[in-house]
Design goal:
Blueprint: H1 6-19, E1 44-50, E2 52-53, E3 65-66, H2 69-88, E4 95-100, H3 107-120, E5 125-130, H4 137-146, E6 150-156, H5 160-165, H6 173-183, E7 189-196, H7 203-216, E8 220-225, H8 230-239, H9 248-260, E9 265-266, E10 271-273, H10 282-285, E11 288-292, E12 297-300, E13 303-307, H11 311-319, E14 325-330, H12 333-346, E15 349-351, H13 352-359, H14 363-366, H15 368-376, E16 380-381, E17 385-388, H16 390-417
Parallel strand pairs: 1-4, 1-11, 2-3, 4-5, 5-6, 6-7, 7-8
Antiparallel strand pairs: 8-10, 9-10, 12-13, 13-14, 15-17, 16-17
Helix pairs in contact: 1-16, 2-11, 3-4, 7-9, 12-16
Length: 419
Amino acid sequence: MSVEMIPNLVSFITRREGQKFLKLSQEINDSIITGSGLGGDAGISLYIHIPFCRSLCPFCCFNRYLFKEDSARQYFKNLKKELDLYIQKGFTFSDFYFGGGTPTILMDELIDFIDYLKKNFEVKQISLETTPREINPETINHLKTAGINRLSIGVQSFDNDLLKAMGRLFCPGEEIKERLLMAQGKFDTLNIDFVFNFPGQSIDTFEADVAAFKKLGIDQATFYPLMASPHKKDALERRFNRIDTTREKKFYDIILRELYTDGYKASTVWCFSRGKRMIDEYIIDSDDYIGIGAGSVSIVRGNFYVNTFSLDRYQELLTNNRLPIVGWRTLSEAEHRRYYLLTKLFGTRIDKGQFYQRFNTSIDQKLRNELLFFRLFGLVQGDNKISVTRRGMYPVSVMMREFFASLNTLREHYIEKQI
């Protein structure tokens, strides 16, 4: 097999594995999830989903709604109810990740919720997403005072034509840069998100974005390949150009050339940092995590859970003191181990000792064929601590893209049916 064929092979295998996450049971009772024996020290984190935006980007597959203040304020109340139910079940958390949507869309509610977390838990670190148009000195001060450790700003590009195509020309590229510099140095980590391989996005445009990031001196950048679900892909192609995944490696090669070999640390295969920084990929840092909010997912002890995507059903279930879980699945032992392998490869390193602690068995025994494949083609190296090589970076990126695309297919189905 040629090296060029490896991304296609791992893409096929990961797509097949990811589709297994779509086969969910709707038989829900109060005993399907418990926090007994788990806690902050056990490596469980909390993701909080805020699904409201001032405008909806055409490429986003996450659960989101146009902002309406009354709905958003009620939603924050429901979030507290859901969190209370997890507290009653014995869960405790110390690491928190806010995503969306736009979590900063109602700052007073956000700050109040963070205060609620501090009343109930020993908060160690908080990561929070926002958009450039939300960034101003007042917001930065509020977030810093609230104890945000990592602020992630969804820039996507500095190119005005591309921003317009994405429906994100609420801030021109030069103004985005000015707003980023307002926030730089105010948090432990400032991250900016970019998208690559968007329809109509040129290699030159992407190169210019990477160069601009380096010139700004921002702590960290995360580069997301386009991961459209089937209907989202069709809609994008009707509106723009054909989505051509054969171009994807050309974009990724720019990342490797400009960052991976130029003094940046690969925190994940998509995230590159100046020095040691906090990342928001809780699937890497935490073997178990709970997601709260409409459209969140959770993994606990090899069980996969999906919350309702409907705001009305979310409120209805919580009003009846029920967790808003509407689908779940117990992964087989092999599926659980492969999912673990995928997430650790995504984080560029695997610790054999940690694998043994998680599964009470040797990774060399249970994932022998998988590791043999990665070693045979030079995608990983090392013994007790296995790391992804430069050659392995893009194949692992493809694997993670395919897995998230499978989840986006699930999201699309739940959003469309308002499950």
